[in-house]
Fold this protein.
Amino acid sequence: MTHSFGRKVMVGALVISAFSLLGRFSGFLQKLVVAHQFGTGVSADAYTFAFSSIVFTFMIVPHKLLAPFLPLFVERKETQGEPAAWRFTGAVVTLTVTVVAIAVAAGIVAAPWMVRALSNFHSEQTDVLATKLVRIMLPAACFMSLFSLSTLIFNADKRFALPAFAETVNKLLVIVVMVVLCPLLGITGLALAVVAGAVACLAVLVWGLRSKLKFLRLSVDWNDPLLRKFGWLIPPTLASILIAQGRTMIDYWFASGMGAGFASSLGYAKSLTDTLVLLVPFAVGIVIYPFFSDLNVGGDRRKTTDAVMGASRSMALFFIPISVALMVLRVPVVQLAFERGKFGMDSVALTAGPLLYFAAALTALALEIILMRFYFSAQDTMTPAVVGVLCVIVHVGLVITLQGSMQHRSIALATAVSKTLKVAILFFLLKRHLGDLRLGENLAFGAKMVAAAIAMAFIVHASYAALAHGFPTPAAAGKMVTAGFLAMRLAVAAGFGLVAFVGLALALRVREALAMWAYIRRR
């Protein structure tokens, strides 16, 4: 990765992360409030299933489906000017609103059927509650689809701050409305909060685009060649989305049939790793997308290869130590994050099990974002779709094979294996776009990372065990004191492990580690 490219990406990612840190923390805080009020009971299971398996699907499909819009918007703006780009935008807005509104209306009518088909709850009460929550939350998909399109318009101009701020507003408003309504309406209050948050974040971006809206015309020119090009990119993109969401639906179908608490504990474990992925790789992916698009248009393979390999190795260097620490310290992490109210030690054990494998998948999840952004910037949406089908088959096969012995841990293990496989295949298929994969230096990098990770795991485990023995929590300590001791042991053990990892990476002359160390010393 060149210095100037890396600096631009880092600055942009820092801007997004700075604005979104509060939003991500707020989203995690939402999980804490739900865990405190509802634990891993029927209400939590119903909400986790309703949102993760159905409502989120209605939100994420248009969000990802619109991704190819960004390079096309830039192309039209650069060749024909801003008014022409906004005429193209008006056509996309018209089609998006029409299709999503029809889908939401159909989803509200079909909610009972979807819940019965996609879940395996043993309680009719849970089915009824999940159906109610789906119907309340589905309209949020309309607002979120327009929010996604507005975000792409900002990102095309390399403006990242306001969309990140809008997401923060979303999360904060959800918490505020939830705190006000949940004591009165129970879990229904959380469903209403989801809708309120979606409306709020769209309103922020509409305000930010107010000077441009004069160019917007809600009409469709079916003869527009750019619109037809967009249409050709949609089918493989849609296939990728449906495959990914299909896997999520299947996961919660399996988890819902394992008994009370399995679906919600799977969701709590996933929320820990999702928070980390959304905070850093997601921010980098947003920033790097328009830069990758520029590099692909320029046609310089060497610079493009530098960018892809540099971004990938830097992401691995950042996430491998986080993954190791979370795997080793998973039980105290879950205790510190969730153990309060109705979330007792039984819930901790249920959540820590799948967290081991979700943590193992962290690096692959981060690298997947980088690789997917590159393929989309190259207007290659078919390759990720085909690879996604293969990996979902592997994922489901592993769950079916292992669910009897591993229960919901089989779902997390299948995620780790299938995501790692997907990243490996997508990496090797880069040869068609980049030519040189630089296998020698990447294999050397991987071997050094494995050595540093193993050393870190031993040090983190030994450090935490020594701290737990040397600094036990006082027997009569209150909740705050107990949490303080737990946080201290976690921070110190993870800190020792991180120092060991970084030290070994520097000793092994890992290029990205040396570059980061040099940058820190200059500051």
